[in-house]
Amino acid sequence: MSEATRKVVFIIYFCAIIAIRVYFSRQVKQNKITDGRKTQEEKLFLFLAFIGIFILPLLGVFTPWLEFAAYDLPDWTGWIGTGVFLIAIWLFWRSHADLGLNWSASLEIRENHSLVDTGVYHYIRHPMYASFLLWGIAQALLLHNWIYGLFNIVSFLPMYLLRVPQEEQMMLDTFGEQYRDYMSRTGRVIPKFPHSSAELG
């Protein structure tokens, strides 16, 4: 897969992600927030993730400014990146769809919030974060650049490591033993299989 094709694939998938997020953001707009826990630290990490996930790859695709940091991978890695990104998009969409009006972009509990443990949430507690991790892997395989190819996953990990414990504590405060039981049955971003408790983070 040529560099030009890889960039076109990335932009098409990138636009699909944006469309999904905009659609579901409008769906939940009228659902009142009853508990918000966003911190200054989280805002900083969100900003860094925004740079790595949105700004740098667009600069890399549409300008030559970062070409000095390019690296070489075999052409076939672009096809793997395409497949991984497609899985990430499906998981991103499915996560929003399964959460419905419970979804929020930040650490928030909404009015009439319910604990979702069906769909992809039957297997993992944080499929949306899993989709971002897959997106980061796909970006590195599609955009062969040490800066805009890799900074997605590099910038996302600090936010993941900060936010997941806070989010799970918020859910424990809200749902108590119901959520604790749910945690025992699922993995964070990797499905928990029988006799396995491997989790990321």
- Radius of gyration over alpha carbons? 18 Å
Quote the distance from N terminus to C terminus: 34 Å
The largest sheet, given as strand count, sense and whether it forms a barrel, is: 2 strands, antiparallel
Helix/sheet category: mainly alpha
Number of DSSP helical runs: 6
The averaged pLDDT comes out at 87
Beta strand count: 2
Q: Unreliable runs, pLDDT <50, ≥5 residues?
A: none
Mind telling me which CATH architecture this is? Up-down Bundle
Order of strands in the sheet with most strands: 1-2
Name the helicity range.
55-70%
- The global form is elongated
Q: State the domain count.
A: 1
Chain-wise SSE layout:
Blueprint lengths: L2 H26 L4 E4 L3 H23 L14 H23 L8 E3 L16 H16 L8 H25 L1 H9 L16
Antiparallel strand pairs: 1-2
Helix pairs in contact: 1-3, 2-5, 3-4, 4-5, 5-6
Concise account of the structure shown:
The chain is mainly alpha-helical. Helix content is 61%, strand content 3%. α3 packs antiparallel against α4 and α5 packs across α6 (177-185).
